[in-house]
């Protein structure tokens, strides 16, 4: 049987033990539930773009690789970007090609032909060509304003008649217009085979010249050619005629 003295010693020792626990408890690690209850905030999650950067997807890697190849190829192919470039002597000739694919000569030429034409069939073709050119200008301007891809760094801003949106590169308006006009001419003008070949070659040369002059990257031109090719289908679908647009044709009736 324990003595009264030993019982008193155990009871006297308990306060010391409790005091030791109370001293240790502030430094003891908190459980997750206690941290949540105490209002401690967890580290904020990483932004979504940082997560994507840390864990890039296959699509992201493929697009980054394609962009790197595009910039590299565009730099290498820009052989007429300046007078001191590898093919700098051909730059004046390519600038003539540049003017041939510009929107202003095509708009002015189509408008003049529309005013001088005495044939109703010719007026119908020219009016739809004018509609196609205006549609091309609006669509390219909208896409450039949305994408806002800058032009290549080796480009010299000495282009023929530019507007504010022309500081952007994607897509190539010259390539879009060349593909659109090429399909339009081949479908609505009766040309001999050599002339048809020349029309196709002109469209391709316009596209290639944009890269050689340093105006655009390769993907700008490729997308522009595809866009112009598809845009002709929209023009055909919305074809203007005296039946569905009599007011427009009445303006050009002599």
From TrEMBL:
Which reaction does this chain catalyze? (2E)-geranyl phosphate + H2O = (2E)-geraniol + phosphate; (2E,6E)-farnesyl phosphate + H2O = (2E,6E)-farnesol + phosphate; (2E,6E,10E)-geranylgeranyl diphosphate + H2O = (2E,6E,10E)-geranylgeranyl phosphate + phosphate + H(+); (2E,6E,10E)-geranylgeranyl phosphate + H2O = (2E,6E,10E)-geranylgeraniol + phosphate
* Enzyme class per UniProt: hydrolase
Q: Please list the GO terms describing molecular function.
A: sphingosine-1-phosphate phosphatase activity
Q: Where is this region: Disordered?
A: 1-49
Q: Which GO terms describe its biological process?
A: lipid metabolic process
Q: Where is the composition biased (Basic and acidic residues)?
A: 1-14
What does the UniProt keyword field contain?
Endoplasmic reticulum, Hydrolase, Lipid metabolism, Membrane, Nucleus, Transmembrane, Transmembrane helix
Task: Please give the superkingdom of this protein's source.
Answer: Eukaryota
Regions crossing the membrane = 126-147, 184-209, 221-240
Pfam families for this protein: PAP2 (PF01569)
- Gene Ontology CC: one annotated term: endoplasmic reticulum membrane
Family stated for the protein in its record: Belongs to the PA-phosphatase related phosphoesterase family.
Name under which the protein is recorded: Polyisoprenoid diphosphate/phosphate phosphohydrolase PLPP6
Q: Which organism is it from?
A: Aythya fuligula
């Amino acid at each position: 049987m324990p003595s009264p003295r030993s019982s008193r010693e155990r009871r006297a020792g308990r306060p010391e033990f409790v005091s030791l626990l109370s001293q240790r408890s502030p430094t003891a690690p908190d459980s997750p539930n206690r941290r949540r209850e105490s209002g401690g905030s967890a580290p904020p999650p990483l932004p979504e773009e940082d997560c994507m950067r840390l864990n890039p997807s296959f699509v992201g890697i493929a697009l980054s690789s394609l962009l790197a190849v595009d910039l590299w190829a565009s730099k290498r192919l820009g052989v007429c970007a300046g007078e001191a470039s590898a093919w700098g002597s051909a730059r004046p000739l390519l600038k003539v090609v540049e003017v041939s694919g510009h929107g202003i000569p095509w708009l002015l030429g189509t408008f003049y032909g529309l005013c001088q034409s005495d044939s109703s069939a010719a007026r119908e073709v020219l009016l739809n060509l004018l509609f196609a050119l205006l549609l091309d200008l609006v669509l390219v301007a909208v896409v450039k304003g949305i994408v806002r891809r800058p032009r290549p760094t080796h480009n010299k801003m000495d282009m023929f008649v530019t507007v504010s949106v022309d500081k952007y590169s994607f897509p190539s308006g010259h390539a879009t217009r060349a593909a659109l006009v090429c399909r339009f001419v081949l479908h609505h003008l009766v040309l001999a085979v050599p002339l048809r070949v020349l029309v196709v070659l002109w469209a391709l040369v316009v596209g290639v010249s944009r890269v050689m002059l340093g105006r655009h990257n390769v993907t700008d031109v490729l997308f522009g050619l595809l866009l112009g090719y598809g845009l002709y289908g929209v023009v055909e679908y919305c074809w203007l005629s005296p039946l569905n647009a009599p007011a427009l044709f009445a303006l050009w009736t002599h």
